[in-house]
């Protein structure tokens, strides 16, 4: 009987135990299930819900736009207007004329610029660039470096397998990358709905996000584009983790150098890292890099911020052409600039030894209109280009991209702690015209969600980095399918009828570029 009693008691205990386990499981499961349902399972059906047009298009291809609008399930979130610091923020910076890559738009005269202040002008970027060198002048070291030390033969680098070089460069620095990621083609994959997006609010991040790119501050009402997350096909990509990023970048400096699309990526990164919250432990260290607003200029040539807790510096320097610009007649305010196609920007040359991650880009300024408006005169080997073939803009761009990549590749040998990326071109989406002839990008849904091609759509950038240790940050194809993510007609100061189908809304597509970057450093 004793045995029976024990047996019975045991059974009871076991039953109770199992009931407990089952009950706990159910509780935990159902507790998790609700968020799971909305965040982890959304895949296809939810994507279609958010972007009904995609499905419709696939099935019929003829649905009218209004139908898409009606079917739109994106919640129409309204925020108190008072939270939008309307006039000051909106008026802070005008629409930059980068939307005018093929421009022949007039450039402001310097005297006009002096009094232009923060006000908008369609040639702001041109102005900005034409003051670049004037601002640089105080740095005598830079000037003399420029004139006495033209880009010398970069040390030839042995062509290494990317993986082995990866290992090699990491010998003497904190491990930054996961060697495994080298095999991954981050550019291939698909966009999926993620209700945890965006990574920061477009109403926030006022410390770093330009009002002109914060589409939440505009009349735009569709925000489905904020909810998509890029999922590479053949590899795992961790979600962006700000703490991890800063830890990885402890005592390190990340520099973006490029045009306004590079500036968008910079602002995006600052917003992601801070979650769009105001931060008092991030200090402006622009001065250290000479990035101060010169008298009479609209803004400095760049910005640099240091996250004090981890001593991480993130900076951006404006170099639209990614080559060195040198005033031909420094004493003359309306001087032309020698555009040294085969020399790196002086800023890069001067500070590269202090960088640990470098992200370069160029592209949208390589057209006759921009070159003329900026008063750029092409130089190679220190002499003015007369070769007709090279005077062709595409050839000049090709020469510059190859030159800068080769130069940086040579520097990598000197600075093993440095990782360099060349970001591929950010696509424009002007339909039915160009930036100045009524081109539009009105869609509120992505073109498609998947990118399956193996090779980059940017042949120039991918060709230039081939065989070097400079990595391609390939954002072209994945951005190409996101035509709905541009500023479009919501430009704050756009001339009626003119749309910005070049820059992106933030939060938005450039956030993904930073996630790809995070995955590779
Ligand atoms: C969103 O709300 C605003 C203000 O209430 C309204 O004007 C607009 O038409 C709404 N948009 C949609 C797509 O429902
Ligand atoms: C902070 O980081 C920079 C690189 O970004 C480094 O040069 C400097 O030595 C670091 N400072 C300290 C106190 O570690
Ligand atoms: C300054 O440069 C412009 C061309 O950019 C030229 O037309 C003008 O004559 C120059 N002025 C002087 C004083 O050299
Ligand atoms: C620049 O000069 C080098 C030799 O000094 C020559 O090999 C090269 O072809 C020149 N490049 C151009 C574009 O003229
Ligand atoms: C670009 O430059 C590279 C290196 O000089 C050259 O191999 C390539 O043929 C050029 N491509 C074009 C399209 O000019």
UniProtKB/TrEMBL annotation:
Trichome birefringence-like C-terminal domain span: 239-519
Keyword annotations from UniProtKB, A to Z: Membrane, Signal-anchor, Transmembrane, Transmembrane helix
All residue ranges annotated as the Trichome birefringence-like N-terminal domain in the record: 183-236
Bias-annotated ranges (Polar residues): 146-156
Molecular function in Gene Ontology: O-acetyltransferase activity
Membrane spanning stretches: 12-31
Region (Disordered): 106-161
GO CC aspect terms: Golgi apparatus; membrane
Alphabetical list of Pfam families matching this protein: PC-Esterase, PMR5N
Compartments where located: Membrane
Membrane topology: Single-pass membrane protein
UniProt family annotation: Belongs to the PC-esterase family. TBL subfamily.
UniProt-recorded name of the protein: Trichome birefringence-like N-terminal domain-containing protein
Organism of derivation: Lactuca virosa
